[in-house]
Specification:
Elements lengths: L1 E3 L7 H15 L6 E3 L5 H9 L6 E5 L1 H11 L8 E5 L5 H6 L5 H10 L2 E9 L3 E3 L2 E5 L4 H4 L2 H7 L1 H10 L7 E7 L3 E12 L3 E2 L3 E2 L12 E7 L4 H12 L8 E6 L1 E14 L2 E21 L1
Parallel strand pairs: 1-2, 1-3, 3-4
Antiparallel strand pairs: 5-6, 5-15, 7-9, 7-14, 8-9, 8-14, 9-12, 10-11, 12-13, 14-15
Helix pairs in contact: 1-5, 2-3, 7-8
């Protein structure tokens, strides 16, 4: 089963489809192609038909992969999943060492071996593949116009982020993890399972284990002034978590409580507004072919 997001990769997914089918066929598979038509469609297709096939492969960005994984979580038996990354950031592919070339990625999907990837439960009914976050810049990915993404790629995200610098606002939160409780005014918070976030923040591969049953929790406290903000951003981008305004810890579970509703994102897509949200690591999650 090959699920294709035809809009992914500046429309390059459609152009690469013929070569991808040839590589999958050469690996001994007879692919049936499904095109996604709207947000959430990949989840519906994977849940409805994923159990009918020996192997699943999805072709799109991190959002497409996230939707497919959410569909697999609804199945009593989960098939190994191949991933052909065609998005703007492709953070999950980078973490897994998957090729950015769609034909090479198709070879990995057709002939690869499965490795475990933990997923995250977002509240009671939803899931995320690599990041759930609130605060500064988290809405950039879905508020950046699609035309800009297709024309400029990742640069479009950076330009939109710069435009929002003067609108940053901290939120008060209480964060309960396995080992401790933190309270304060936070500019940004996230639970991740990735060595790269938004193509900018790179975490040490020796620090992050994608199948250890633990999230990496990153919290950034509100800076005192714009100069402190610059130092904090520089520290986070260089993965230097020694700054006292930055907390970095591991946990199987994290509960976030806010005095008023706060907007969240799941894998770069809208995750709704919440005053009390619990994230749980789903271990084991899915298997990705590499």
């Amino acid at each position: 089963m090959l699920l294709v997001n035809p809009r992914a990769g500046k429309g390059a997914a459609q152009a690469a489809l013929g070569g991808v089918l040839e590589r999958l066929s050469g690996a001994g598979w007879l692919p049936t192609v499904y095109f996604t038509r709207h947000a959430g469609h990949a989840t519906e297709l994977a849940a409805a038909h994923g159990g009918d096939y020996e192997r699943l492969v999805c072709m799109g960005g991190d959002g497409t992969l996230s939707e497919v994984c959410a569909g697999l979580m609804r199945l009593p038996e989960r098939r190994a999943l191949g991933y052909i990354p065609m998005g703007t950031s492709n953070d999950v592919a980078h973490s897994l060492g998957l090729s950015a070339d769609p034909l090479e990625a198709a070879e990995q999907a057709g002939r690869g071996s499965p490795v475990a990837l933990d997923l995250g439960a977002f509240g009671e009914r939803e899931f995320f593949t690599y990041v759930a976050a609130f605060g500064a810049f988290t809405d950039v990915s879905y508020d950046t116009p699609q035309e800009a993404k297709q024309a400029l790629g990742h640069l479009a995200y950076m330009l939109e982020g710069l435009r929002r610098l003067n609108r940053l606002r901290a939120v008060h939160a209480t964060v309960e993890t396995d080992g401790e409780t933190l309270e304060g005014d936070f500019l940004f918070g996230a639970a991740t399972n990735s060595t790269r976030i938004a193509g900018l923040v790179h975490l040490d591969g020796d620090t992050v284990d994608l199948s250890d049953g633990l999230f990496e929790i990153l919290l950034v406290r509100n800076p005192k002034n714009i100069l402190d903000l610059g130092g904090i951003i520089g520290a986070v981008l260089s993965a230097d978590f020694s700054d006292p305004s930055v907390s970095f810890l591991k946990s199987r579970r994290a509960r976030f409580r806010f005095p008023e509703p706060v907007a969240w994102t799941r894998d770069g897509e809208r995750g709704g507004e919440h005053t009390d949200l619990t994230l749980r690591n789903c271990h084991p999650g899915v298997e990705i072919l590499v």
